[in-house]
Amino acid sequence: MPRSPRRRSVTTRSIERRGRGLRGPLLPPEVPARRTRAEKFDLLVMDAFAPVDSAWHDRLKKLDIAVDEVPKIFARDPDSVTWPPEVVADGPVPLSRLIPAGIDRYGKTTRARIVLFRRPLEQRAKNPDELTDLVHDVLVHQVSTFLGVDPQVIDPTLPDED
Q: For the whole prediction, is pTM greater than 0.85?
């Protein structure tokens, strides 16, 4: 009895190997739609920080801005969710953190750094305009903590916290 030939399963690798897959990128690199969510968020952070930096540039020379996808910090007290003053949080979820200048575990000096957490910020905004405002507010609060002044000194348009 003759055997029927065994068919190989079709995989993405076998399709591309035979030249039937995508031959190049869907969108060219210069098109804005090609940017990832992380790249778009990085640009948003830079745009939100630009007016603060232009007004306070001399005092912010030793400050870095960084973006992390999710927070890797935990509350001091998980039951009551108290955060140190250098953390801006929405309840139990931190949105950003100010890391003061110091010395790392290798003995090298580090600069002060504001770390914004992308995913928690994106989840709290309903639309792009709200995300822009939220990122700006968080940056203003962190810069005011770094400089030791009220947030209204950095941005007088912010509402008073009561």
A: no
